[in-house]
Design goal:
Layout: E1 3-6, E2 39-46, E3 49-59, E4 62-72, E5 80-93, E6 101-107, E7 117-126, E8 130-139, E9 183-192, E10 197-203, H1 209-212, E11 223-230, E12 236-242, E13 246-252, H2 276-283, H3 288-301, E14 304-312, E15 315-322, H4 328-342, E16 349-356, E17 359-367, H5 368-374, H6 380-387, E18 389-391, E19 408-423, E20 426-443, E21 446-458, H7 478-484, E22 488-498, E23 504-512, E24 517-526, E25 533-545, E26 553-568, E27 573-581, E28 587-596, E29 602-610, H8 614-617, E30 624-631, H9 632-636, E31 643-648, H10 665-669, H11 674-680
Parallel strand pairs: 1-13, 15-16
Antiparallel strand pairs: 1-2, 2-3, 3-4, 4-5, 5-6, 6-7, 7-8, 8-9, 9-10, 10-11, 11-12, 12-13, 14-15, 16-17, 17-18, 19-20, 20-21, 21-22, 22-23, 23-24, 24-25, 25-26, 26-27, 27-28, 28-29, 29-30, 30-31
Helix pairs in contact: 3-4
């Protein structure tokens, strides 16, 4: 039996998803692509095999996949094999009236090589309903009907395929194996009977050789057949018959990050601009204290905290902290409306400084007349942004903090849920509990913070597997931390953040910095307001905490730090490079690329290369992973700064491990920079 689940929201999708979680018929790939930005989660069951795949359409012409497979009785063994692999697929030619789409694919290019294959495949559509697919494959896709490699004309090295995964650890990108050895043909067709029903048929050369050794899987025929039904919500249900031995069932559902589960706009509407005459009458006989009280009350209702206020002549300057909105531009718009409704008519300009714990990040000047002129303009978003003046806040905020703004105390209490993926003893572990976080900002920039967690239900502490790492156990003893701790002090820090100069930001944090390490962390960031580029440097001296995650330390201590470059690429992409020393004492660099949607949904990938060899690193060969960040507002439609973040690593080891410090400066300052404000300015009027 086969069961496949791919998650996709709010879009009709014609092509089917293969058991490998990529565009395909049943087992073989097609030359189709998902819609740009689509995120697909796939779960598949195939006799004695379970596969879970996440595929992301990174660009209109390329998508990548991460897959986790559980195979019983693989390669003649009586145990269970756990396998992690990566795919990437490139469209070489888009389908035209007279020619097919052509795709080059690499399957399992960064895993143990169980599913390793390369292929070229072409797909052509006829009369909008009938599609033919044909291709040539190498590796696992060169089973039945294999023949000598046609690429042998370019050299004899293509004739033989070296043994995969020679180091025994997996995770390495084995360029030397690609398109080498024998090749075989594959093909298939799909016929869309109507808008709901599609029939599938294919010829697959995969012989499941390793699985067949222990009768884990049997192949009697190369032909697979399926029937797919598409529901009104875009999901798909496919019944299939595979290799003459197995029945299959496939369910697919897609996620479009640009389209939220719940439409936006469910929060409170912004306050309407009051007529200037009404504002003039209300402020004519009011003292400055009364005006400030009304302003502060109105801002509180909008989820914006007033921490700074001054006025001179025709300009009012305020400093605010955004406590509610995922887009800083929305907080700016709400603040500007409140100022227009509470300040006397002689105040013609509003300088609004975005701040974090009393530290100025950037300032935006909004002209009062522009608010009235553009409030109902159909193009008010881009026109108001063109007229706004965005600048550094350092010259703006010179004293003037409200006497009641500091000290300031906040707390958060609620449930938490942690996941651990791909433990060889249990592919999915979890921990559910209660979390309490306390923040006490004594004065601008100086904050004392504590975070505590009490697990209630947990399978993290069930793992008894001992780390086999030859490096200092800076991360690989995670199960001991889970097993020997109960009430945990996740962090307890004193943090000071300040502005040493224009375009410069600085941070010093002292205390229990994260679950496994405590000590001193310092950071400096250069980030001009209108620049796509930011540069930072971080230095830390830390000691490893006791396994009970309370107040004690172990003997291990290390100096670690990085220099970092951050760059906003054109479009929806963001790149980051961190070079330095990691927790295990190894030196190297981490490379990260994220795709960031305007609504705050983020999908990214990273990898780290250090002077630790693949043998020293152990299983996985080097640190790498995928990260997702989903704003809560994407689910609820209501404004919120909360996000659900998850990093998915094939394996957690000690090489390339970096310190987890709260409030790194780039993350704190970025939302207030011109690039981010421009992306979210569509919410200025909402």
């Amino acid at each position: 039996m086969v069961f496949i689940c791919a998650i996709v929201t709010g879009m009709a999708q014609a092509q089917s998803v293969s058991t490998y979680g990529t565009p395909g018929l049943i087992e073989i790939p097609t030359a189709e692509m998902f819609d740009d930005g689509t995120l697909v989660f796939t779960a598949a069951g195939l006799r004695n095999t379970a596969r879970a795949t996440m595929t992301f359409q990174m660009l209109p012409w390329v998508h990548g996949s991460f897959r986790y497979a559980v195979i019983d009785g693989f390669d003649g063994t009586s145990g269970t094999r756990y396998d992690r692999s990566f795919d990437v697929h490139f469209r070489l030619r888009e389908e035209s009236r007279h020619g097919p789409a052509i795709v080059m694919g690499l399957r399992d290019f960064g895993g143990t090589g169980i599913y390793a294959a390369e292929y070229f495949v072409a797909t052509k559509t006829f009369q909008d309903r009938f599609k033919l697919t044909g291709g040539i494959g190498w590796g696992r896709m060169a089973g039945r009907g294999a023949f000598s490699n046609p690429l042998g004309i370019f050299g004899s090295r293509f004739d033989t395929r070296p043994a995969s995964n020679s180091n025994g650890q997996g995770g390495e990108v084995e360029f030397g194996n690609w398109f080498r050895g024998d090749a075989a043909l594959f093909g298939g067709a799909s016929w869309q009977y109507n808008d709901r029903l599609t029939f599938l048929a294919e010829y697959s050369p995969d012989l499941y050789t390793a699985e067949a050794v222990n009768d884990s899987f049997r192949v009697k025929s190369p032909f697979n057949f399926g029937a797919q039904y598409q529901f009104r919500n875009g999901s798909q249900l496919t019944a299939s018959y595979l290799y003459g031995t197995s029945l299959g069932l496939t369910y697919s559902y897609f996620v479009n990050p640009r389209k939220a589960v719940t439409p936006g706009g469910q929060g409170a509407a912004p306050p309407p601009l009051l007529p200037e005459s009404q504002v003039a009458a209300a402020t004519a006989n009011s003292s400055s204290g009364d005006i400030r009280a009304r302003m502060q009350s109105a801002l509180d209702q909008e989820g914006v905290r007033l921490v700074y206020l001054s006025d001179s002549g025709d300009t009012v300057r305020v400093g605010v902290e955004n406590n509610r909105y995922g887009q800083a531009a929305q907080a700016l718009g709400r603040t500007a409306r409140v100022l227009a409704n509470t300040e006397p008519p002689q105040a013609e300009h509003f300088d609004i400084a975005l701040m974090s714990n009393g530290v100025p990040l950037s300032a935006v000047r909004v002209n009062r007349d522009d608010l009235y002129e553009l409030e109902h303009d159909p193009d008010n978003a881009w026109r108001s942004f063109a007229r706004a003046e965005i600048s550094d806040t350092l010259p703006l905020v010179q004293g003037g903090f409200l006497t009641d703004a500091f000290p300031h105390f906040t707390y958060r209490f609620g449930p938490y849920l942690n996941f651990s993926f791909f433990d060889p003893d249990d592919p999915l572990r979890y921990e559910l509990g209660a979390a309490l976080e306390l923040d006490y900002t004594v004065s601008p920039g100086l904050t004392f913070s504590t975070g505590m967690r009490q697990p209630i239900l947990s399978t993290l502490d069930d793992s008894t597997r001992a780390s086999d790492s030859t490096l200092p156990h800076v991360r690989s003893d995670w199960n001991i931390y889970a097993r020997e701790s109960n009430l945990r002090i996740e962090h307890m820090t004193a943090e000071y953040m300040w502005r040493p100069g224009e375009d410069l930001y600085a941070r010093t944090t002292l205390g229990y910095l994260e679950t496994m390490f405590g000590g001193l962390s310092t950071e400096l960031l250069w980030y001009p307001n209108n620049s796509r580029l930011a540069l930072g440097a971080e230095a830390n001296y830390v000691a490893q905490r006791d396994f009970d995650v309370l107040f004690g330390f172990q003997d291990y201590n290390v100096f670690t730090g990085h220099v970092s470059a951050y760059y906003d690429l054109p479009g929806e992409y963001h790149a980051q490079v961190d070079v330095g020393r990691y927790l295990a004492g190894d030196y190297g660099a981490t490379f990260t690329l994220d795709r960031e949607f305007n609504n705050g949904f983020k999908v990214g990938a990273f990898f780290t290369l250090t002077n630790v060899s693949s043998e020293e690193f152990g299983e996985g060969s080097f640190d790498k992973g995928i990260r997702l960040e989903i704003p809560v507002s994407w689910f609820t439609g209501r404004p919120s700064r909360n996000k659900i973040a998850q990093t998915i690593r094939p394996v957690l080891r000690d090489g390339g491990a970096r310190l987890n410090v709260r409030n790194r400066l780039y993350g704190v300052t970025r939302e207030a920079r011109a690039q981010d404000l421009s992306r979210g300015w569509g919410r200025f009027w909402r």
